[in-house]
Amino acid sequence: LEVLVMTDPHGGATELLLQESRRPRPLAQERAEAWEAAKALGGMPLALVMGGALVREERWSFERLVTELDAVLKLRPESGEYPDSVVGAVLLTHERLRADLPWAAVLAELCAWLAPEGLEEGLFAGSVAGGKWKTARTLTTPEVRDLLEHPENMRAALRGLRRWSVLSDKGAMHRLTQAVLRGTGGQAMAESAAAVLAAQFPNGKDGPAFVHSWPTCRLILPHVQALWAAAEPLWHSTWGQPGWAAMDYLLNQSGLFLSTQHDLAGAVALKRGSLALMEARLGEEDRDITTALGNLALDLANLGEFAEAQDKIDRAVALAEAHRKGTERAELATLYMQQASLAFRRMEAGGQVADGAEAMAEAALDKARGIRVELFGEDSAEMSNWWNSMGYLRGLQRRKGAELQAYKRALEICRALPQADRGVLATRAMNYGSTALELGRAEKAQGALQEAYEIAAEIFAEVPNHPNLRTMAHWLAACLMVLARKGQGTRAQAEKICARHGLDLAEREA
């Protein structure tokens, strides 16, 4: 994009520089010097704001600003396409911060690798407060550790960056400032940024698959994406193959979150990155890459990339079967479940793609059941998931009675769990209710479908067009129309739901 510059000697550029330097009523000579400085800064708004902050904070004259700018530009690294005036203003500001406010300089270098918005104290405090910081801190520089582990240092750094116009009051950093500063902090600061984010990205029982973790995932995701976009080219061209467990973890978890949001293309891009990093760090035959292979295979299958998906899941299963023993077979059971899910997608696609898929699904589910019952018991969350998958398979086989019974068992187990995830419970209820409705049992279906819809409406309040919510609205509206045909007063509720979600009422009625 072309950036407009401010070139009027009696207008914008001079006035902005005077304003930022706190010289609202300068003499004619000082105004003339300000104009010369504005020209040296290229009339670029970012450079003018930073230049004004230098004059204000260092008590420089405008002539001194021009001299210092010339000096730093002679020593600057290659700036590529960025204007010299902006590069000079950023580097000069950073140089002064290192001398006067070293904590602020460290924070600026760290923020340069993150998203340009949301750079507030909570983002960094969340890392130190989490249980994963003890491990993550070893992957950061000593300066970053001292900054984050001492709140007084962090607050002083934030005040300094705002005062020097490096950060806005709303926690935003100009993208050009970030681009210049990334060359200052280098790879060590990029690694630190990855560790800071990894320390707070949800995993395990609080991972991206569970609704209660989504607000945290939404907060961190833009920073993961920004870090990946900035660092990936450097890994290949400058730094060499990285060995960053923090980064491949971040990419995998972010990909899982995007999968829950139905952004499959975005999920695949991040999961490919995670797998590439793990293979570079561990080798292609390491057992710890099985999770990345399985996660990527599912999204590839959902995008119709069946050949690659099958290759990925077969590799993962083979590695896990060779290396996972004892309780570690829980990972193998998960891979069998993913193998079954891939088979479902192939069955749905039909044609030659579906050849052998049904047998693969039956075998994979049978193997998964044996491991899960042994390790977790019949009434575990893992077995609720298994029964749900079995119900899906029976539906694909058009065995509706068996499908209903499987979904009923999945829902019963889920409801009995002391801390069942709300999103999982909604899906279980919808699967049971929709199958009951298809079998002509609308009265039995209504309660489950109403429960599913109400939970989904709460979960997806910020994403009203989420496919999961619309699907649950479809089923509930259809159920209510069936009941209305039987003489119950449910049509008005169905009309209201259809209007709220933009559904075709006539289509639902049919």
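Second entry:
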Amino acid sequence: MSVMRSVLLAVSENRWMRERGPKLWFVRRAVRRFMPGEEFDDMLQAATVLNSEGIDTVFTRLGENVSDPAEADLVTRHYVEGLARIQQAGLRCEPSIKLTQLGLDLDRERCYANLRALGEQADATGNYLWVDMEQSSYVDVTLDLTRRLRREFPRVGVCLQAYLYRTAQDLASLKAEGIGVRLVKGAYKEPPSLAFPAKADVDDNYFTLATAMLEPGTPGFRAVFGTHDTRLIRSIGEHAERAGLGPRAYEVHMLYGIQRAEQLRLVRAGADIRVLVAYGAYWFPWYMRRLAERPANVWFVLRTMFRA
């Protein structure tokens, strides 16, 4: 793990910086490139434009570790209403939710009741529900609740992190159960006893997991690769081609405002591409973790932040 990555992850977890960082003008200016705004309507407008370009979308209202039951219920209503609006607008836009937004830290069963409400609404509106992954301490409960939801509603997927040693085993079981998987590298600070500390090892494991995801699986399984690493994307594409798979045998998910040229290249190549459009006031820790995923982005941000 690089020094820069360690610093960015520490900043994302620092309460003092979480409170003061979003008030700094240069930070707010920099984050505008990576999210269209703080409101649902900002996301909706961005999704409309992306859909018109052949790019599907995922939406997420930023937030985590909710400590008030009323706030967890409010987040649930927000997503339920948002799914209805997306159906009315005819957009190709799927929700992605963190369980700690739904009250997981407060009460597991209350969290599941909120999650089930989202699963029910996603099913009723013909949509698909993604469950985000958080720190390693949440992996077991996240997978347990996702499996429980999948027994009722067929269109459910979950995020897995390639830097965790356990992910190969988790992937095999989820794939056998027909639960979609969005594979990412991982954006939290984890001890070397649980996660690969070296970036090269994470990249190698990501590709190994990706090849396993492209093998035949249970109906309902979706192979989704959440990465901006163009080298990995091309290697996965070449492997799929050698295996006789077309470009729609898997999906690539990216973040709004990152690797725009690569997104359009994938569309032209006939690939399934989705862009995650994030919004909400609680963006600072999320933004720091996105920078930590690829610390080289810091220099890009510094160049654009002070550009006239």
